[in-house]
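Reposting from the mailing list since nobody answered there.

I have sequence plus structure tokens for a pair of proteins and want to know whether others read the tokens the same way I do. The first protein:
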Amino acid sequence: MSTTPVADRPVPRPGVLAIEAYVPGKAQAGGAVKTYKLSANENPLGPSPKAREAFHAADALEFYPDGSSTKLREAIAGAYGLDAGRLVCGTGSDELITLIAAAYAGPGDEVIYSQYGFLVYRIATLATGATPVVVPEKNLTADVDALLAAVTEKTRIVFLANPNNPTGTYLPFDEVRRLQRGLPPHVLLVLDAAYAEYVRRNDYESGIELVATARNVAMLRTFSKIHGLAALRVGWLYGPAEVVDAVNRIRGAFNVNSAAIAAATAAIGDTAHVEAAVAHNDVWLAWVTDELTALGLTVTPSVGNFVLAHFPDVEGQRARDADAFLSARGLILRRMDAYGLPGALRITIGTEEANRLLVAVLAEFLGKREPGHGA
């Protein structure tokens, strides 16, 4: 007769309750002040008007969506010159990260990602029972040599956010290719290119070329950032046929809803809106970086639509103090404690009004006058 004690209620399997749940950035400041949400890297221009129109037109609520997201996959394939059969759409790239981990890792396996990589990599890894292997970064940037040195016979997946969130740094394509070439062929390299559209560097490539020529590379993209559709949760994966097949076998049958499919399909066709969002970011990313630097803050060079600002370790001027001061005035930023960067705040590039107010309030917080550089 078994002597194993029987619980008096359902109990999650070992390890689940040890996972720290993902906590999104704050959305409200509280009080009566106008709120400027700069905590979630959302597009300050909002979505394409064509996407809004398509969303409102998708009113056949009694019907299940197309389980294969066919129109959306075809639209993505047309926009990027891809094979629609090698695409999978998901409820945000978060779902696709979770599905990849579930398909390729489990107890006894290891999943590698860099020190300041997206928190969902850890959550997805632990949820499968696999072991996360966190690799130190160099100058807040992923280190290819260190990533390769961490590979063992247990390694199944390497997640690389490029550009990375929350640092805004990136690896040039030659370095990404070097990473892929150094991996054993059975290890899947997942390139998370959520912010790819914002990058304006000649040595950057999102991963499309590498996926097209390698059997162990997949790329993730999202409609939450440049396309301004964060509320609808739409992401996509481009990968080898075998990876696509594995993910399709375990994803939800109707994982992307009809309104999201319609809006995302319209959004990817509105290149003018994307170009406007990129142009806005080009101007204000540089302006915010310069202004914060002029205030005496250290700003990690970013190629995304956000900056990581580092505050002095001085009583009353620390990141947590700045966060409280800004929040009281309606400016909602992202604390970085969960990423192991308690001395920094991540700041989304917002509207002109939000950006100028941010600098003015930070100048007040730091006891300095606003630099006043024009934009």
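The second protein, same order (residues first, tokens after):
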Amino acid sequence: MMTSCISPDDLHLAVQALLGGRLVVFPTETVYGVAALAQNEAAVRSLYQAKSRPDHLALPVMVASSDLIPTIARPRPGFWALAERFWPGPLTIILPKTPALPDIVTAGGDTVGLRIPDHPLALELLRLVAAPLAVTSANRSGQPPARSATEARTQLDGRVSLIVDGGPAPGGQPSTVIDLTTEPPRILRPGPITAAAIGDAFPLPGLP
């Protein structure tokens, strides 16, 4: 399979590829990501294969709007307040998944990490696809995440269909991860959004 690089002006080609079950690389506000249609089990399987990613590692899911969340996950107390305050942005929220999301996305687990990225090109692609995407860093497992289309192609050439060249990814700190499926909720990974900021948006018992 040949991997083509396209410009943001040809984003419709990336949409067609994703809807057709193929893999697409695009920039996010941290690094370049590689995506598959989350509800297409075969496409998600090919994403694991392209990255040589161990199948016991779950995949994060990105959406364009929190309105899509109930189709793949069950909102928990505090979710809507956090989503309204911090999305788009560097907050990953873990919720119970629904049967509509294939088990392969969550590595057989009952929960899924969800985010709306704060990058205009990523957001536009998600809006045009109008469906959740399983997205992880555009690199071979164990290798450095790609910060540019060239770096992504070096690692994934022939393993993905398209790479959207949106210039260098800004990079920066990975997203804060909060798990709303536990009692009390827990911050699993500190990040740009602090526990204090989360508490200001919605008081969650047990958070520092």
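Reply #1 (J.P.):
I read it the same way you do. The mean pLDDT is 94.
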